[in-house]
Amino acid sequence: MEVICGSMFSGKTEELIRRLRRAEMAGQNVEIFKPKLDTRYSEEDVVSHNRNKIPSTAVETPDEILLLGSNCDVVGIDEAQFFDESIVEVANQLANSGVRVVIAGLDMDFMGRPFGPMPFLMATAEYVTKVHAICKRTGNLANYSMRTSTSKDLVELGETESYEAVSRRVFVDEFLEVRKLKG
């Protein structure tokens, strides 16, 4: 099992697509899955912010991945943070049966907390790759997805209109300090 994690705009989906395309070039049977709720760019394809895309199957639950991916050589899963905790068992079952599982997802939510099942996936994976965006304010590595909209919902689909990838310093100064003032 391989996990690709990081903030928004860090290249997680680009790296997932790259790995899956290489598996396809090697003649392996590859299936890609994403949560049905992720319709930002396409209802059918996994699409990166750079508009690279690969055909996928949108699913409601991780159990569907187990059913549809069990006869594959490689299973890709994008936006894993949006699945419930059962994705951990599904990914491990597939990996235990000899399927190479490549998973991409946000490691932290907009409040800087571990996001959904991602910590458990990272803990059970053989390989974890953390990718980083660049903070446009400081030029440093950005590993936080700071929400710029006012929504308090844990899940808010969006792009640059709702999120900014920022460094720790910017996140602490702007997001955490504002939260302290508001109580």
UniProtKB/TrEMBL annotation:
The active site is at E79 (proton acceptor). Its EC number is 2.7.1.21. ATP binds at G6, S7, M8, F9, S10, G11, K12, T13, D78, E79, A80, Q81. Its main location: cytoplasm. It is found in: Cytoplasm. InterPro entries: P-loop_NTPase (IPR027417), Thymidine_kinase (IPR001267). Substrate binds at V155, E156, L157, G158, Y163. It comes from the Bacteria. Gene3D superfamilies: 3.30.60.20, P-loop containing nucleotide triphosphate hydrolases. Keywords: ATP-binding, Cytoplasm, DNA synthesis, Kinase, Nucleotide-binding, Transferase. GO terms for molecular function: ATP binding; thymidine kinase activity. Pfam families: TK. It is an enzyme of class 2 (transferase). One of its GO terms (biological process) is DNA biosynthetic process. It catalyses: thymidine + ATP = dTMP + ADP + H(+). GO terms for cellular component: cytosol. The keyword Nucleotide-binding applies. Belongs to the thymidine kinase family. PANTHER family: THYMIDINE KINASE, THYMIDINE KINASE, CYTOSOLIC. Homotetramer. This is Thymidine kinase. It comes from Bergeyella zoohelcum ATCC 43767.
